[in-house]
Amino acid sequence: MGSSSRRLSETYSAPPAGQPAAAPVTPPPPQFPRRFAGPKSPHDLIQERYPHDGWAVLMCCLMLNCTTRVQMERVIGPFLERWPTPYSVLPADSHEMAEVVRSLGFKNRRTERIKRLAGDIVARGDGPITSENVRSLHGVGEYGARAYEIFCLGVLGAEPPDDHSLVKYYE
Predict the structure, then answer these.
(1) Do 59 and 79 meet the contact criterion of CB atoms below 8 Å apart?
(2) DSSP category for residue 60
(3) How many angstroms separate the CA atoms of 160 and 171, rounded?
(4) Backbone φ and ψ of 107, nearest 5°
(5) Mind listing the pLDDT tens digit for each residue in 7-52?
């Protein structure tokens, strides 16, 4: 079975303290809420396709940075098939990941940011990612935080977002 068809149960997470690095461990429960599926807009924002998956929403936002939606749409599916969770990213080969995101530009920098974000999420343990702490994750700026709040938590906020695409959904 190739690495692109691995399941979550076949991936490795960061080892607990005192355990050898290569030892497989069972990932803790998902830290992302799976309860909100907001209304679909006529704008078909890419994040609307993943309201049940906080990791995917954050990856969409990170991958949209400095590229176009058309370019990102070609990459997000294959990326999420290979690395469906932050736990699957940590042991992943950086060169392989860089090749998958190459067409987005900044392949090495983007790969580093993805790995650092995954590390931040895994380091949190089984605590939830909330509106209050999503901004503290590596590489998650205001755009990513607002997209996460809107599409994963169902929180529109009192003020419209700064991003033009999110404003379309907000309105």
Answers:
(1) yes
(2) H
(3) 8
(4) -55, -40
(5) 223 333 444 555 444 444 445 544 555 445 566 766 667 787 777 7
**d(C-alpha 110, C-alpha 113), whole Å:** 5
Contact 131, 111 (CB under 8 A): no
Tokens at 97, concatenated:
């990941």
| Chain-centroid distance, C-alpha 72 | 13
Tell me what pLDDT residue 9 has: 31
Provide CB contacts within 8 A for 48, sequence distance 6+.
38, 40, 41, 151, 169
Of 127, 151, 123, 133, nearest to 58 by C-alpha is 151
CB contact set of 31 (below 8 Å; sequence gap of 6+): 54, 121, 124, 126, 127, 128, 129
pLDDT value of residue 39 = 63
Dist. CA 82–CA 46, nearest whole Å: 19
Average pLDDT score over residue span 132-139: 92
Q: How far apart (Å, rounded) are the C-alpha atoms in residues 16 and 49?
A: 33
The Cα–Cα gap between 94 and 107 comes to: 10
Which helix (H) or strand (E) segment holds residue 9: the answer is none
The CA distance from 66 to 58, in Å, is: 15
Q: Are 140 and 58 in contact (CB under 8 A)?
A: yes
pLDDT one-digit tens code per residue, 63-103: 998 998 899 999 999 999 999 999 999 999 999 999 999 99
